[in-house]
Protein 1
Amino acid sequence: MSDESIAARIDRLVNEEHDLRSREQHDTPEALEADAERLRAVEVELDVCWDLLRQRRALRDASDDPDQAQARDPNTVERYWQ
């Protein structure tokens, strides 16, 4: 997976995140619950994508092959300190 494809995935997820957040004010309780679940999944996927992109950049900066980077488990990524 290239940096460009990861960045494109990030863009799509950010757009979906914005759409979900904008619908919060108008959602029914059932739709709000479903949207909240999807929003959490989008946030986790964004974190995984950003982590993978950072790994690729770090490997490139260290003169290593960025294709060695691998997406980490969401549980690992979600436990990082910001």
Note: Residues 3-78 form one domain.
Protein 2
Amino acid sequence: MRLYQRAMNWYLDGPRGYPRRPRGRRYRSPALATFWWLLGLGTRLFSLPALLVLPTAVLFFLHSAMLPDARVRWLVLVMITLLATDFILGILFWPRLKIKRVLPDRVCAGQRFQIEYQVENRRNLPALALELDPGLGAYWLRCLKAPALAMLGAKKTTTLQGTYLPRQRGKYFLGQLAGMSGFPFSICRHSSIYKSFDYLLVHPAYHNLMELILPQGLKLQKSGLERIMKVSEAMEFHGCRDYREGDNPRHIHWRSSARRGDLVVREFQDEYLSRTALIVDTCLRHPKRSPSLFRGLKHVWNFFKGKGMLWPDGTVLELEAALSLTAAIAEFLLKGECLIDLFAAGKDVRHLQAGRQVAAFKTLLDILSEIEPEPNPSLRELKEEVLEEISGLGNAIVILLGFDQERRDFVEKLRERGVIVKLLLIGQGWPAPEGTTILEASDILAGRVLKL
């Protein structure tokens, strides 16, 4: 059973020529995986235009085989001659390359970035009509400028750049690095392929907030500085006073002491920071609605207008909006010198403390990049120890993707522990309590939510 499960997971991940994104515990369609495998194997042997023409060419070949006197037979002979010529010349100039891919550390969804390729031709013949990583821009990444080269001389080395646009945030695994030649007629492909273990982190896109009203009763936490004090040993300067026996000589203010003729020391006081919990829900369950033929036809009509897809592609619009909003809130709070405790509820609860010198904003975005939607309720995964830690902060900003009984119980647990909650609900159709800020996912992603 374990071997079958591993083999099935390997098959559902799809061919290694395409970027692979972890799916978590979501359902993955074997039919869709079969399509990608067939496309991947086909484009490894033939170019995409040739692959599209191939079924028609096979029909012509069968027709001419059954009817030798048919006029289409001459067209079939021409096609076979072109295919044989392309195949033989391609074998003679089959590329043997050494390729190195240089990826950026992090990129942002919706913003173009470049990948650098260092290519070395190891043959004594030139490499012709080269294209690198042809499958990289097939789905998750949009290829704006392909890394292609008309000719690379024998034993020569060059550097190419490809420009791509990430469609969605996430952590992508690039398991294959390929250089393919379409010489001479771009019918057959002759490849030089290597295994690679590259990762690309795509941060969620977000828009800066202009105003954020925090929950009333915000606690000032001295205990939250314990980790910071170990790093910087910094305290807020309060003033100067006369030296007393037992004072640290390193705190003597020599300039003031020389002016007064007596020892003067600098006096410090403990610095307090405001801390807030930022809790993100990762489970989406739409409100129950009866089946509607009108909604189904509208969905199909939107697809033909270029909006949405006929089948789910794994993208949960509400979750993407929630993570975008989380990034915007975190960026606003960190600018105000606030300490953030991020909790992403799921099968594995992700917890990060960010602010000052504890963790950088980029680290928080790294965590948001890897979050995948949970098919089951996730807030129940928060244990009592986590709830007690949140209650010690005294306030929380909670971003929910719905408001069913489980989420209602979670909010009540926080309030019973004295936590003042600012509740943000993404989506319509839920019986939300009074004081809840209801937002639309499309407004968040379009940057129309500027004040909270």
Note: The radius of gyration is 30 Å.
